[in-house]
Design a protein that fits this description.
Layout lengths: L2 E3 L1 H12 L13 H10 L19 E3 L5 H17 L14 H35 L2 H25 L5 H13 L1 H17 L3 H28 L7 H22 L1 H9 L2 H4 L17
Antiparallel strand pairs: 1-2
Length: about 290
C-alpha cells in the first residue's frame, strides 16, 4: 500500500493550522465539539471527496502501488477479517469497496470460478456425448480419462511453477479440456475397426497405433507448435497460452496413446472387441464388458 486518505487527514491539517502551539498539532482532537468547529471552519470542496453534505457518510481511500490481484486479494481479505473482528457501533455500516484493484480482483475471481465450472461442464458433456456415440458408458470414461489427466497435470504444473490460477490460466485449462477430446475418439474408432478386421488384439493395437496414432501425434504437434509461438510474446497472457497449451496437447496425446489403450485392453469393452474375441497373449481370457 502506498498511502491512505480520508476525512481524518483534513481534520488533522486543520488542527495543525489553527493550533500551531499544540505539541502534536497534526492529529484528530479527542474533543468532539472542537472537531465540529474545525470541520465548520475548513469546509470546502475538498470535503466532497470523503463525505456527503449531511456528514452522514465517510470514505476511506487506499492508494495501492499496483493493481496485481495477488496483492489486492490478501489486502481485501485482511480488511474484511478486521471488520468482522471489530464490529461497528449500532447504526453504523462499514463496507469494503474498491476501484481498479478490487474490481479486477472481483472479475478475476468470478471469471476463474466460471472457467473451472466450464471445465467440469465440458468434461460432463464429452462423457455423455461419447457414451451415446459409442453406445457404452465405459466408452465415455475412456474418452474423458486422457482429458482428466491433462487437467490434473496442468493444475500440478501451475502449483510447481508458481503460476497463479487466474482468469488466463483457467481459460487455458478450459480450452485444453475441449481440444484434447478428439484424440481418444480417433484411437477408439480405429481400434474397433482394426479389431474387427484382424485376428488378435495385439495386431489391432499395433495397427491402430501405426495409423491413428501417427495422425494424433501429427495433430497434437501441429496445434502445440502453433501455440508455442506465443511463448515468445511480450504479453504475459499470450506467453501463458504458449506454455500451457503445448503441455496440454502433449499430455492428452500421450495419455490417449498409452494409458487409454491399457485401460481398454484390461477391461475389454464390448463396443471395441465385441461380445467374444481373442484376448491379447498373456492377458486373462474373459468376456468383454459393455
Amino acid at each position: 500500500m502506498l498511502r491512505t486518505a480520508s476525512l481524518a487527514d483534513l481534520v488533522k491539517s486543520l488542527h495543525k493550522i489553527f493550533n500551531p502551539e499544540d505539541r502534536d498539532p497534526y492529529r484528530v482532537p479527542d474533543d468532539q465539539p472542537l472537531v465540529a468547529q474545525l470541520m465548520y471552519l475548513g469546509e470546502s470542496p475538498a470535503f466532497e471527496r470523503f463525505t456527503d453534505r449531511a456528514l452522514s457518510k465517510a470514505l476511506l481511500l487506499a492508494y495501492l502501488r499496483d493493481d496485481d490481484s495477488a496483492r489486492v486479494g490478501p489486502l481485501v481479505r485482511r480488511a474484511q477479517a478486521w471488520l468482522a473482528a471489530h464490529p461497528a457501533p449500532p447504526g453504523v455500516h462499514v463496507l469494503v469497496a474498491g476501484g481498479v484493484g478490487p474490481t479486477i480482483l472481483a472479475v478475476n475471481e468470478h471469471t476463474t470460478y466460471g472457467k473451472l465450472l466450464n471445465t467440469l461442464v465440458v468434461l460432463g458433456v464429452i462423457y455423455v456425448v461419447s457414451s451415446i456415440v459409442l453406445r457404452s458408458p465405459l466408452g465415455g470414461l475412456f474418452v474423458v480419462s486422457p482429458i482428466a489427466l491433462t487437467v490434473v497435470m496442468l493444475f500440478g504444473f501451475l502449483g510447481w511453477t508458481g503460476i497463479r490460477l487466474d482468469m488466463g490460466s483457467a481459460s487455458v485449462i478450459a480450452m485444453a479440456a475441449g481440444i484434447g477430446a478428439d484424440y481418444a475418439i480417433y484411437f477408439l474408432y480405429r481400434l474397433r475397426e482394426e479389431r474387427a478386421r484382424l485376428a488378435s488384439d495385439e495386431a489391432a493395437v499395433e495397427a491402430a497405433l501405426h495409423t491413428s496414432g501417427r495422425a494424433i501425434l501429427f495433430v497434437a504437434a501441429s496445434i502445440g507448435a502453433g501455440f508455442a509461438v506465443m511463448a515468445f510474446s511480450r504479453y504475459p497472457g499470450m506467453r501463458l497460452f504458449g506454455i500451457l497449451m503445448p503441455l496440454a496437447m502433449a499430455t492428452s496425446c500421450l495419455a490417449a496413446l498409452s494409458i487409454m489403450p491399457v485401460l481398454v485392453l484390461r477391461s475389454r469393452p464390448a463396443f471395441v472387441f465385441g461380445t467374444t474375441s481373442t484376448p491379447l497373449p498373456g492377458a486373462a481370457p474373459g468376456r468383454a464388458v459393455g
